[in-house]
UniProtKB/TrEMBL annotation:
It catalyses: a 2'-deoxyadenosine in DNA + S-adenosyl-L-methionine = an N(6)-methyl-2'-deoxyadenosine in DNA + S-adenosyl-L-homocysteine + H(+). This is site-specific DNA-methyltransferase (adenine-specific). Pfam families: HsdM_N, N6_Mtase. Residues 135-445 form the DNA methylase adenine-specific domain. It is an enzyme of class 2 (transferase). Gene3D superfamilies: 1.20.1260.30, Vaccinia Virus protein VP39. Residues 10-120 form the N6 adenine-specific DNA methyltransferase N-terminal domain. GO terms for molecular function: DNA binding; N-methyltransferase activity; site-specific DNA-methyltransferase (adenine-specific) activity. It comes from the Archaea. GO terms for biological process: DNA restriction-modification system; methylation. SUPFAM superfamilies: S-adenosyl-L-methionine-dependent methyltransferases.
Length: 798
């Protein structure tokens, strides 16, 4: 069976996190990721001649497994596995597997390393077949672990990872996908961290390009080198060193220049000039622009990027917002960069995205090729588009797509983006702070004084709902009528607002039209999805599917096409991605398997069966609906009987009730009490209640057994149906009944949200102005008089 992508991620994380003990995540990650790396390269390259990674004899993962339980396991891993691998492939230093401070000593170290190796012995983690080629399940797992380790490491130790969503934006706005790339096309990251940003740029290129990266921290540069290999870029050149003080990539004595440069440097680095005399910089990175402040290194990195770009080069750098408006030396540098035309755009991001800091950041986009024609800078304020993800914020798929779309097409969107002329920037003394140019604040919901004084809904508030009236022009007339100039009143009761909207012919026609619109997309992509084969790449599938859906809803009224797109991307992450990976590995096979759970003592327990690709409920709905209906009927009857029994117990549970003489209300005690009062005429009413309870209890037990037997029979029928499924039936179950039905429900939910939004706003406005201030004052006076009268009758005089 194919390993579900989500299960690989979560099982690796939970297992590794469990073994971490008291060790800091930023340290423990090194051991986990090295083991993942060794397992992958061993499976993929061991014994292969001319492989990009050499696995010396005796240094594979199998050889590491042989060391489990040995008293000197840590020392042996260092000598037999790590050392030869590093030497044979010129890798960066790897962590010490015999470090007693981190891994403990004696039995503690032996157990910890043995258990850690065991995690990667899972037979499902067999990477001998390259599952990758654009769908690198292992590389993505590596990224998943990096994200979790960064989250666990806290603010000060999360710099080794740039959120994948931000990396994706940068890679796409560079325009590398539209460019003619070859193997000689170069991309460079001077502060590459674990290499995720650089890899995203490589993923966007249509051909293989050459990657260069430099990283100051030796452990992190080792992670980057491993990450390159895991993502099928073993030729990438990653070096360790301080980029500003000692840049490693040169052409002779001058800095090497690249086609694309990207970076997420440390924010406001106070030690950027360590080992460097900025005034005597031999590479002349600062001479044309000015020297950055001694305690603010942001522009030092940006100017290094500018100097490292070819004359036709393009780059992007993540920096704190301070670079846009801070004065003195930074203002001079900013002015020079703008005047040279190097800055193509600025994208403001939400706060709290990055693991090293909670402050908001921006992306500065550099374009040397078109600098001489620059007439303005394109600005985007995307600070409001995100979702909460634990302690951090996170960009959603729709946020990424919107930023890239708007930036690539240079589309001006109110309160979101605009092209700002160089003349306007100069008038603002080259201050690039986004709020100066884009008012992203949401319009305030103003209160109308006259409306509160004299009643009536202001026409301005109803006019603000223009997008609804454009689609349903007569709906406005159905809801409102003129009250006096500039003010309206409802034509229907407040309780009828929803039904008036839902049942209006224009709104009903709009909903029906949108249903047809989705059905058209569904029919088109149903056929495409049923053509999937084992060799198809899931990432290509979701790209075609999502872009098709986004285009299909672009320009449609009332509904936001990015919201529809997000529903698909959410469902992809939750369910469809795993399904597509299973199909890409095994084809259209509906394989059932037993669910075995272990208790604390290690004893196994069979918890039934399941099928990941075609869940049981799909089989039942299509083939055994009558049996399910009978179970539903029995369950409803059972619930009714249970409710009657519970109600009887509550009615007769008091001191005077029929159950007052019982310690417990159960069959045994009720039967015993009936025997006790048998023949007692005074207890006739009590006996009637007890007999009624007993009948209900017996009916309940009988129905419960019938439900259980029916469910067992249905379970057996469903289980036996799987081997009889044809491939076409499986395709129809998965594509039509599972995937597209879920998306259909999500899109219909968007339609409901549209109608609910209008209903709530109309109701809110009607309630806001339904009682004018004079009436409220009069009502208050009436209530005050009543209270005064009550108090006087009680003998209290005001």
């Amino acid at each position: 069976m194919a390993l579900k992508k989500s299960e690989l991620y979560s099982s690796l994380w939970s297992s590794c996190d469990e073994l971490r003990g008291g060790m800091d995540a930023s340290q423990y990650k090194d051991y986990v990721l090295v083991l993942l790396f060794i397992k992958y390269v061993s499976d993929k390259y061991a014994g292969q001649p001319y492989a990009p990674i050499t696995i010396p004899t005796g240094s594979s993962f199998k050889d590491m497994v042989a060391l489990k339980g040995k008293p000197d396991i840590g020392d042996q891993i260092n000598k037999k596995i790590i050392g030869p691998l590093v030497s044979a492939n010129k890798l960066s230093d790897m962590p010490d597997f015999n470090d007693t401070n981190k891994l403990g000593s004696g039995k503690e170290q032996v157990d910890r390393l043995t258990n850690l190796i065991s995690i990667f012995e899972n037979p499902a983690l067999d990477f001998s077949k390259n599952r990758a080629e654009g769908d690198d399940i292992l590389g993505d797992a590596y990224e998943y672990l990096m994200r979790h380790f960064a989250t666990e490491s806290g603010k000060s130790k999360g710099q080794f990872y740039t959120p994948a969503e931000v990396s994706r934006i940068i890679a796409q706005i560079l325009g590398i996908r539209q460019a003619e790339t070859t193997s000689s096309t170069t991309a460079y990251d001077p502060t590459c961290g674990s290499g995720s940003l650089l890899l995203k740029v490589a993923d966007e290129a249509r051909t293989k390009i050459t990657l260069y990266g430099q990283e100051k921290d030796s452990a992190t540069s080792g992670l980057a080198r491993m990450n390159m290999i895991l993502h099928n870029n073993p030729e990438a050149l990653i070096v360790q060193g301080n980029t500003l003080a000692d840049p490693k990539f040169k052409d002779g004595e001058t800095l090497k220049t690249f086609d694309y440069v990207v970076a997420n440097p440390p924010f406001s680095d106070k030690r950027w000039s360590t080992g460097l005399d900025p005034l005597k910089d031999e590479h002349e990175r600062f001479k044309p622009f000015g020297v950055p402040p001694a305690k603010q290194g942001d522009y030092a990195y940006l100017l290094h990027i500018v100097r490292s770009l070819k004359s036709t080069g393009k780059g992007a750098c993540i920096l704190p917002h301070g670079v846009l408006f801070r004065g003195n030396a930074e203002a001079d540098i900013r002015r020079a960069l703008v005047r040279k035309g190097y800055i193509k755009g600025i994208i403001g991001l939400p706060a709290n995205l990055f693991y090293g800091t909670g402050i908001p950041a921006c992306i500065i986009v550099i374009d040397k090729e078109n600098a001489h024609n620059r007439k303005g800078i394109f600005m985007i304020d995307a600070s409001a588009g995100f979702m909460k993800d634990g302690p951090k914020n996170r960009l959603r798929s729709q946020d990424i797509h919107k930023i890239v779309d708007v930036f690539t097409k240079q589309t001006e969107v109110p309160k979101y983006s605009r092209m700002v002329s160089l003349e306007e920037i100069e008038k603002n003394e080259f201050n690039l702070n986004l709020p100066r140019y884009i008012d992203s604040q949401q319009a305030e919901d103003l209160q109308d004084i006259e409306g509160h004084l004299h009643g009536g809904i202001p026409c301005a508030d109803i006019d603000a709902l223009k997008r609804y009236w454009d689609v349903c022009p007569h709906l406005r007339v159905a809801l409102f009528r003129d009250m006096r100039p500039g003010y309206l009143e409802l034509t229907v009761d407040k309780s009828a607002i929803k039904s008036t909207i839902y049942e209006h012919p224009e709104f009903a026609a709009f909903i029906a039209g949108m249903n047809v619109h989705f059905a058209q997309w569904r029919e088109r992509f149903s056929a495409m999805l049923k053509q999937l084969k084992a060799e198809n790449h899931p990432k290509e599938i979701i790209a075609e599917l999502s872009e098709g859906l986004l285009a299909h809803y672009t320009g449609k009224p009332l509904i936001n096409h990015y919201d529809v797109y997000q529903h698909l991307m959410d469902y992809w992450a939750e369910t469809m991605q795993d399904d597509c990976y299973m199909i890409s590995a095994d084809g259209w096979k509906a394989q059932t398997y037993r669910i075995i759970e272990k208790d604390k003592k290690g004893k196994e327990k069979d918890k039934g069966w399941t099928c990941d690709l075609v869940p049981k409920e799909l089989i039942v709905a299509r083939y055994f609906s009558k049996e399910q209906e009978e179970i539903d009927r029995l369950t409803a009857e059972l619930e009714s009987v249970t409710a009657s029994r519970t109600e009887l117990e509550e009615e007769q549970g008091g001191e005077e009730g029929a159950f007052s003489e019982l310690d417990k209300v159960n069959k045994a005690s009720v039967s015993a009490r009936l025997k006790e009062i048998k023949g007692d005429r005074e207890a006739k009413d009590e006996a009637a209640v007890l007999n009624e309870w007993l009948k209900l209890a017996n009916d309940e037990a009988d129905l419960r057994k019938k439900v259980k037997d029916a469910e067992a029979a249905l379970d057996a029928k469903a289980y036996s149906q799987y081997p009889r499924l044809s491939e076409d039936e499986i395709k129809s179950l998965v594509v039509d009944d599972k995937w597209l039905s879920a998306l259909d429900a999500a899109v219909h939910g968007e339609m409901d949200r549209i109608s609910q939004s209008l209903t709530q706003r109309v109701k809110e406005l009607s309630e806001r102005y339904e009682t004018p201030l004079p009436q409220m004052t009069e009502r208050v006076a009436e209530l005050e008089a009543k209270v005064k009268g009550h108090l006087e009758r009680m003998g209290f005089k005001i």
